[in-house]
Amino acid sequence: MASHRRWDATPFRQPVSHVQDHNVPVQEVAAVETADAIAEALRSCATGDQSAMATLYDLTSAKVYGLALRVLRNPAHAEEVTQEIYVEAWQRSDTFQPGRGSALSWLLTITHRRAVDRVRSAEASARRDQAYGADDPAASPVDPADQAVATIEAERVRGALTSLTDTQRQAVELAYYDGLTHREVAHALDVPLGTAKARIRDGLIRLRSALGGD
Q: Are residues 77 and 179 in the same domain?
């Protein structure tokens, strides 16, 4: 199984901005970065072909890094997450199902989830720091009731998000949690603008229904 294989990411730990510097015009590189080529590289990764992983990295790292950067808003953290994504992609390449979406969408879904997890981890750490500083006389008092209501509401929204499809949830989180415009969401997910808008609209309708809206 691909999940038991080990892949050394060291050769790929270089600034993402330099990944595609092969003295080839960007336009020509973009022309050959087809969905079929990405899918073929991912399928080859599942067989243990490390050269295919290098190809996959070259074809997709700019978009993976771009999405991670949009979520994290920190270049160093985005670089770290990008490297983590390709290790995970190598380990899980045999789980890719073409019938459920493109290889690039599969990769970007993993990227978004891991980047959001990193943000939530940082927020949890900040909350702990704030709690430890609660005895500071200079700290602003926090109403426990208000804090409890905010926590409950956040949990309700997180629970309701699970009722969305993967594509709807990803689009809604990018637009409303990460503050991306519809056009930026479309670019991050590599889908037409109309598709991005539809996913956000349908996701919000389903989210409202799950939260008990009319």
A: no
Q: Dig out the tokens for 182 from the structure.
A: 């519809």
| C-alpha atoms less than 13 angstroms from C-alpha of 133 in its C-beta half-sphere | 10
How far, in Å, are 10, 78, 118, 184, 202 from residue 30 at the CA level?
25, 22, 30, 18, 31
Confidence (pTM): 0.56
Report the alpha-carbon distance of residue 132 to residue 152 in Å, rounded: 22
- Measured distance between the N- and C-terminal CA atoms of the chain, rounded to whole angstroms: 47
Q: Does 134 lie in the same domain as 158?
A: no
Position 146 confidence tier, pLDDT thresholds 50, 70, 90: low
Directed axis angle between helix 193-210 and helix 144-161, to 10°? 120
Nearest-CA neighbor of 55 among 76, 40, 70? 40
Q: Alpha helices, DSSP H only, in the chain?
A: 26-32, 35-45, 50-72, 75-92, 103-132, 144-161, 166-172, 182-189, 193-210
Considering its fold, how many domains does the chain have in total?
2
Final residue before a domain boundary, out of 122, 138, 154: 138
Those residues with Cβ within 8 angstroms of residue 16's Cβ, 6 or more apart along the chain or in another chain: 61, 62, 64, 65, 79, 82
Tell me, what amino acid is at 74?
Answer: N
The average confidence (pLDDT) of the chain is 76
Expressed as residue numbers, the domain containing 195 is 142-214
